[in-house]
Known about the structure:
The chain is α+β, with helices and mostly antiparallel strands. The chain has one domain: CATH 2.40.50.1020. Helix content is 21%, strand content 37%. The chain has helices spanning 25-36, 82-88, 133-143; strands spanning 40-45, 48-53, 57-63, 66-71, 74-78, 94-98, 101-104, 108-113, 119-123, 128-131. A seven-stranded antiparallel beta sheet has the order 2-1-5-4-3-7-6. A three-stranded antiparallel beta sheet has the order 8-9-10. The protein is globular, with a radius of gyration of 18 Å. The mean pLDDT is 88.
Amino acid sequence: xxxxxxxxxxxxxxxxxxxxxxxxxxxxxxxxxxxxxxxxxxxxxxxxxxxxxxxxxxxxxxxxxxxxxxxxxxxxxxxxxxxxxxxxxxxxxxxxxxxxxxxxxxxxxxxxxxxxxxxxxxxxxxxxxxxxxxxxxxxxxxxxx
Length: 145
């Protein structure tokens, strides 16, 4: 793929135009990454509101009718529903592991394939979580197992 950058001092906001003869997986992936890479999430922690970058997210889970984003700085309550976050996050970094949880693959230390058919995921913050049976096949495909 050829990439070209033009500097124009009259430009106030970057514009990306992709010219192609057909829509391929590579083009779709580029479009998705360009559209979602700058997405910041606003989270509440006590009386503080913080901006959370995608690269800082370890995992996201739903509990007690709330959605929590976990980072090294702690847990934040967010307004978005889990399915909304699933759609807006970078699909190369984030994967849904159950109906109530999404993990950042870059923050996973290892995946332990259990004899029972489940997968235990160890995260960088020391927490462990399980991939629900419904999502095991999807995770194995994603990991190339």
